[in-house]
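>> Question from a student workshop board

For tomorrow's exercise we were told to take the sequence and the ligand below, predict the bound structure, and bring the output to class. My setup keeps failing. Could a helper post the expected result so I can at least see what it should look like? The ligand is SP5.
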Amino acid sequence: MSLPVPVVWSTDCLRHEPVDEVWLGVPGPGTEVPDRALVLRAALEAAGAPVLDARPHDDTILRTVHDPRLVDHLAGIWAEWDQAGLPADYGRNRVVPYLFPTEGLLAGLPLRVPPAVHARAGLFCYDTMTLVGPGSWAAIRGAVDAALTAADLVSSGARLAYALCRPPGHHVTRGAYGGSCYLNNAAVAAEALRAAGPAQVAVLDIDAHHGNGTQMIFYERPDVWYGSVHVDPGAGWFPHYAGYPDERGRGPGDGFNRNLPLAPGTGDDGWLAAVDLLCAEARELRPDVLVVSLGLDAAAEDPESPLQVTAAGYREAGRRIAALAPAVFIQEGGYHLPTLGPLAVAALDGAAAAIP
Ligand code: SP5
Ligand code: ZN
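>> Workshop helper replied:
Here is what the output should look like for this input. Compare the format with yours to find the bug.
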């Protein structure tokens, strides 16, 4: 077997070790672990895919997509946490916010930047599950470089490319991170594709969870359409506050956002029917290029979602999506280590089968 899809990755992506995630106030084993990247890489390499190292890119696109203060915060927060003695003196070995300066707290007061690093931990983070440690920044930035390198390949004429991004990114808005994500790799790839010339980009997000970050980054823009199929956030699933069907975009972006929430328990038939609806809507835009947020957590075996998609379902989704236009696939979620590799191979093999 020879999978004709270039796989871009960075060894730096192994350096983020969340250790724990704090969910409902209690630390538990982290789900977004380094072995995810190793398992994916090994399976894709065994399937014959060429593996390329991510090429370093400057921050131009990254700081267009994200508030530069978020980027600077992530780059420096671990060192400040460490220097404040929080690991050595208090046993706090990861950055976890305990206070969030919400609109309700501020009630009109200006948003100050407090000197205490433990207070600032909540400035750009919206949950307690997305921990920062010593190697996190290298991995976060390596994932962005992988996405940018894959986008370069497609901008230069490749029909398909896959970025093995870890940590994932689709939950990150312009100015806030969470959901095991730190910088929005898919949004950065979409912006890079636009900067290279193509007028119309479509993002198709098939992670089990709604990509609230990507949606909001492009919410007021018609040039980057966003469509997602995901488990219904109203049925109790992350990200809870976004991903509903009436979120259709705003201003010039009105009509350029599409959410298709699915009931827990939905399997291949219902999921692929929704993927088809997304594809039909995207096709009407005649997109020059696609970004695919490839989460593998809709799989039946996955512990983080109640969707029941099979590897055959992922293969079919890859085929139907890649038939639309050249595509940059970006790795998002997917947490069941024994099946992660076969699922990724299925999705990309399906995508390759769509190319004549
Ligand atoms: C990128 C991505 O798929 N992010 C999804 C993050 C959703 N995580 C929700 C976690 C909810 C609680 N998890 C309990 C884990 C028990 N092992
Ligand atoms: Zn997910």
